[in-house]
């Protein structure tokens, strides 16, 4: 499984907004500065998040970005599904042969994909910003 920087940064953006959002919109440059990520790259990721209605954007003075919903409603799986080109954690099986052993391995890989998706669907942005020292999530 390989999650690209686009997916990882999308999660970082969502965490940053959740931690720093009051009532105002947060400028892109502030997010980029705190996360030490180029504004240009963040812009392309934020466009995806806005297009998928995870963020609200406002142009002009006082503009920036904010979460549309509460942090506890955004799962890591949801964020990755919109930010990654493909959400399959294990590569496609189209090139597999129709042998019995291939069929058995395809079932195994599909089950692994399901388990990973179930796990990531159980983690929210709120979980990641929780102050609990027992939190063992790493991004």
Main attributes?
single chain; Arc Repressor Mutant, subunit A; mainly alpha
Summarize the topology.
Layout: H1 5-20, H2 28-35, H3 39-51, E1 55-58, E2 64-67, H4 76-83, H5 100-121, H6 125-129
Antiparallel strand pairs: 1-2
Helix pairs in contact: 1-3, 1-4
Distance between the termini: 14 Å
What's the quaternary structure here? single chain
Q: Using DSSP, what is the number of strands?
A: 2
Low-confidence stretches: none
Q: What is the helix content?
A: 40-55%
Largest sheet: 2 strands, antiparallel
CATH architecture type: Orthogonal Bundle
Rg over CA atoms: 18 Å
Strand content: 5-15%
DSSP helix count? 6
- The fourth-level CATH homologous superfamily is Winged helix-like DNA-binding domain superfamily/Winged helix DNA-binding domain
Order of helices and strands: HHHEEHHH
CATH class: Mainly Alpha
SS-derived structural category: mainly alpha
> Per the principal axes of the C-alpha atoms, what is the gross shape?
elongated
Could you tell me the CATH topology label.
Answer: Arc Repressor Mutant, subunit A
Mean pLDDT: 86
Largest sheet strand order: 1-2
Count of domain modules: 1
């Amino acid at each position: 499984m390989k999650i690209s920087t686009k997916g990882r940064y999308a999660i970082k953006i969502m965490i940053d907004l959740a931690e720093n959002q009051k009532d105002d919109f947060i400028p892109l440059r502030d997010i980029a500065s705190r996360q030490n990520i180029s504004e240009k790259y963040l812009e392309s990721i934020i466009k995806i998040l806005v297009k998928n209605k995870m963020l609200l954007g406002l142009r002009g003075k006082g503009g920036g970005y904010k979460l549309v919903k509460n942090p506890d409603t955004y799962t890591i799986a949801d964020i990755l599904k919109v930010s990654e080109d493909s959400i399959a954690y294990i590569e496609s099986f189209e090139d597999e042969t129709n042998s019995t052993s291939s069929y058995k391995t395809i079932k195994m890989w599909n089950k692994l994909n399901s388990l990973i998706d179930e796990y990531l669907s159980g983690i929210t942005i709120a979980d990641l910003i929780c102050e609990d020292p027992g939190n063992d999530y790493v991004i």
